[in-house]
Amino acid sequence: MVLIDTSVWIDFFQASESSHAAALESLIRDNNRAMICGIILQEVLQGIRDNTSYTLTKDRLSRLPYLEIDKETYLYASSLYRILRVKGITVPPVDVTLAGLAVQRGIPLYTRDEHFKAIAKHSGLKLF
Q: Any residues with CB less than 8 A from the CB of 125 and at least 6 apart, and which?
């Protein structure tokens, strides 16, 4: 199983010829190994402008394995954010929450965002 970040979903829906889109399609076809959580679901869907695409995408994403974010994840993410900040690394709180979720669940995160490399360097985050 792999948690798929918004950046990869955007690439998948907009640039279907990319290597990221191909890798994601492979994960989906390989026993639906692509996972999603609420933050990513919201980020992807809120960026869609037309109703037809919104409905189709919502239906497709709703079929994926779904991870709930619980209080322990938020507590872990706040600690991780503080550790990174002390080291001079500032990343969006949402991304620290996603990283925390992946670490706590022991699953890799597939992303195109470079700052996740800094998070992985200072935590147990595994990148796909």
A: 99, 102, 103, 109, 116, 119
The residue ranges of every structural domain in the chain are: 2-67, 71-121
pLDDT in tens, 36-78: 999 999 999 999 999 999 999 999 999 999 999 999 999 999 9
pTM assigned to the model: 0.94
Q: Looking only at Cα atoms, what is the longest distance across the chain?
A: 45
The first and second tokens of residue 101, run together, are 């979720």
Confidence of residue 15 (pLDDT cuts 50, 70, 90): confident
Residues in a beta bridge with 66:
36
Task: Tell whether domain 2-67 is in CATH 3.40.50.1010.
Answer: yes
Radius of gyration of the chain (CA): 15
